[in-house]
Amino acid sequence: NQSLYIANHAVNLLLKRGFSPQSLGEALAIVRSVFPPNTNPNNSSSTVVTNPQLHLGIDAFGHCHIDTAWLWPYDETKRKCARSWSNQIAFMHEHKSYKFVCSQAQQFKWVELDYPKLFEKIRHFVKEGQFIPVGGCWVEMDGNLPSCDALCHQFLYGQRYFKDKFGQYSDIFWLPDTFGYSTVLPQIANLSGIKYFLTQKLSWNLVNTFPHNSFIWEGLDDELMFAEKNFKDKGRADEAMMLFGFGDGGGGPSEEMMVRLSALQTRHCLDMPSCVTTTPSQFFNRLETKKRNLCKWVGELYFELHQGTFTSQSAIKAGNNELETNLKLAEFFLALLSVRNTLDPDLSLDLEINSRRARIREAWELVLCNQFHDVLPGSCIEEVVTDALRYFGKARALIEPERSGSSAFLTQWELLPASSNYFAPKFGSASLDDNPNLENEHLKARFDEMGRVVSLKVKTGSNEEDWKDLASEEHPLNVFKLYSDMPLFWDAWDIMDYHAETGVEVKPSGKAGVTFAYKLGDSSSMQLSYCLAKHQPYLVFELNVDWYEAHKLLKVEFPFNVRAQSCFYGSQIGFVQRTNSLNTSQDTAKFEVCGHKWAAMQQHDLGCALLTPNKYGFRALESTLALSLLRSPKSPEANADMGKHRIHYALMPYKGTFQSAKVQFYADDFNARFTEFAVDASLLGDSVADNLIFDKSLMSVSSPAVKIDSLKLAEGRMDLYVLKVAEQLGSSVVCEIEFSKMLPFCSYTFCNILEEPLDGEASYEQIEGSKRDMARRYDSRTTIFSPEGRLYQVEYAIETVNHSGTCLGILAKDGVILACENRNTNPLLDDIFSSEKIYRISDHIVCSFAGLTSDANVLLTELRLIAQRYQLQFQEPVPVEQLIKPMCDVKQAFTQFGGKRPFGVSILYMGWDKHFGYQLYQGDPSGNYGGWKATCIGNNSQSAISIMKQDYKEGEMTLADAKQLAVKIFSKTLDVSVLTSDKMELAQLTKDSEGNVVSRVLPKTEVDKLIKEYEASNMFTMENLLELDLVEAHDSISVAALEEIQRFAGIMQEFNYQLQPRISTCLHLDAGSQEFIRNLTSSTGRERNQSGDQSGNEDESDSDDDLANSMNGLHQSQQNETHSFSDTVKAKVNSKRKPGVSNSRSRAMKNKIMKRKAQKAQMKVSTQNLMSSVESSCRVAAQNRTKSGKQKIKQEVKEECVEEQVKVVKKNNVPLPQEEENRLWVAAKTERLGDSDENMKEHQCRTKSSGLRRYSVEEPTMRDWTAKLKLRKQMRKSNMKSVQFPKQ
Length: 1288
Hints:
- This protein has 35 helices and 47 strands.
- The radius of gyration is 44 Å and the shape is globular.
- A hairpin with a 2-residue loop joins β40 and β41.
């Protein structure tokens, strides 16, 4: 075939241009392009022509067609995807050249949610070029039944998902198993970035073999490169495609197939096609170079089988049609809401808009999933039907408004985008009684006793006699027939052409006015009623059917009184014209065809249209038009369509053509009447609501050929709107679209379905030029309308969070805790609220906030609404991550788009759900979130996280351990001297003995108990002191020094203070001297407590008390002194207000001040004596050490004693001569300079090995010394002696 084609091409060239040398050269070039010359090695003068390019090239890649639902439900498909794709990932590890093709964004999302590790592997191999996502659609949808808006959303959501997750759009429309392809698909695919199309279903044609496999497909406007698996276009193309792998139920290529592929690629047989492993895009790119050789197919790709899918499972088709209409209206309402918010920013509707946008997207995803090519056509099992109807119910709940008695609601009639073409009268019925005639200004109808229309007249002129009849007594309209429906192959899929020979007319069994009753078979019945409103141009029929037949098909037929050569059917946009004769086998095969909303037969001046909202199966033969109403297949579901049905259709007679009679617009009007949708008018405002009552003021078009299909808010934007318009009468027009002041759009650009500007059109930045110019006059860092400004705003929000109170969360194996710093401790506050920063969202989720309280209250309300909506819709608690994601979407909307500042709040969530158990999440102001085992936000968060890293034990942490860790972190990080329950809130989430999730905020008594337990476990008594090796030999310590140590320790123990390490860290006890110290100090203590000392024990005891009180004041925070001072001021103020007691209180206050001064003076003397004793004792002890050790200890003593002395003196406002202070510090630093380099290096090495870090803190607290003593004890156990503590 290819040789013949090349020969004909060369001969045609010569015949056209003559046998000139130039023409001969061109002809020879054509031949050599396929037959290159090859020199014979045995005879240099001879030339042998070989044909290596004549061999067919096959591109092979693995594929695993997985039906999203068919003979298994949606949940099983998720597992099929995981099993099948895991196998292919394993093959990719073994065969680096292996390529695997996979479609359907919905299946990728399921794997992403349920199998995240597998999804990450898929993403890796997508980058490697082995795992190839194709299709560009959300699912492999049916090609006939979805509406235009639904098809656009299939590509919009599918392509954006591929771009977001894999970094690329798909350029191939992948529908290998769909039952026919509408004429609108090429244009929609082209506008979605799709260039190529693949299927194999046309090879299943029952009557006519489709003539091509590689060809150009032209639809209403654009064209696609088309390819099928079975190659027939030999001579025109030398490229073919081979998909291998198990499909339908998954599986994909097997190991045996991989071996065969390898053999086919390595064993080159004579006259066998060459096989290579490439990608679909590479195959189509090569095929495109031969585009001029390919044939073109114009119009729909009709599939000559499975025509029963236009009618099976009518409940699914009705639900799909209803949701398609309502979602379009919901998007239109959202756009109006956004416009109002833009015009009046004080309304602050951003949160409401983003919430509705998220719900609309979720509803669309459910509807798009149900449009899979075995669900919407009805060729699935009963369990799938149940799942599909449940999905429709969820989608309906997501977009329905929350009705309240005080709100006014607008119906869909008041929300449709008005144009000059719309005619929307209020629906109503005339009073008919027993009158068999119905008429209004548009038509006249008359019925017979069997309920048939025997006269249907339409007015064609201005005179009274200008009426033409489309029915007759001999050929009445609205005739019901019941057919035998016994397909040869598949029940739910097929209607065979021979069914037309079995039709039996159904006659009424009774009548009441214009209501007729019918008996259908043995167990089914039907009631028919008519309706004609005052201004309606169509007559409405309503059927109530009780259907329990088996293998039957119910149709209604209309033999119009017109001379029609063809029939016109509505499509998603525009119309399709098909013949109504049986001239060819192709015409005969189209005995049942698909139509959207209407079908019409007409002659040049007269016609009649049949309108139907959700019935798609039509048959036109000569002048008779039939509509399929119900089927009763028994496989794969035995109860398909069994039950009650309400069906509506209408007859619209018209003069002229269907274009001039606006049949399409009335079909849209009739379709919308049988859907329910309403919105809260208060959100739209009075002015917008008043103008929506169809006064044609929102939008209008200048041409009747143009339809305004939808208006929506652009994906991911708050300031852009997408208006979809379509020419649907089959012409080329130029029109103007006029917007009212309610929609003050100022600029536009043409975009594609992905909502990106078309090539050569103005970009979004260009059409926003005026806004950008205005923004340039300001500093970009200070305006939230610029990307830089929004970035700074996020940084400001994070800084606000970092200065707020601390909040931490810890995940344990038996629960989760949240702990928060309570900064608002005013005693005048009412205590009716149990917590300040911890809030319950639901029984399973609790959160805490760090940041602005006002922002936290707004987000808390939204969180609770999200949780309640989920509970209402799905009757189960919301999973933790499902709650966090919508909230992060809301927060990201404030960071990605200008106009509003971001929320200055970080949130910690703790919760439990049945999917992942106990969980802890953190969300920040930028809209990001993450799961944590332990984390902290707010002030001192870095210090808290450092402690968590050391003390958190994964898998071992219990709820009690987590509480103790929280108390420990707060005691070490909060800027308070003593941790109390007034400064700390604690909440826990766990399960009770019955397995119920319980969350509660701990009362103050429990928090105080936890704090006391922590303090008790970390208290250092005299016994703790003696367990530390503080001195090396008792004989080197003077008795006076030991007495001072014992007295100081007794004071600390009495006041529950830990021993001051600045006095004790320089002392060392060996193991042998511990008993001596214990006996000595205990006996000394008993003597001093039991008997009075002759040398003035009473004075010494008073001195001890004074010292204890002074040391208590020394280690308290400055806040305590401030309170004392404030008490003094209050006393003085009170004395002025009450003269009667002023003198006594003044004297008492003076005595108190004098006593305090005496205590400070005594404390100074006692402290100086103590430091002198310790210094002398250490000097004696240092004589037994080496020179380096002596210098080290002396330097520690010098620096610490000097520092303590200076601080004590300054603390008590006692002047210290500057010369004395300088002398002390110079002496201490001089000793430091005496350290040898070798000793310093040794000390640094030991410090580094112990994992310590140096800090610089002005004044250490008791908790710092506690940590030092603990660390000293640990190092002693590990035989690390004489390690200097870092100075803090």
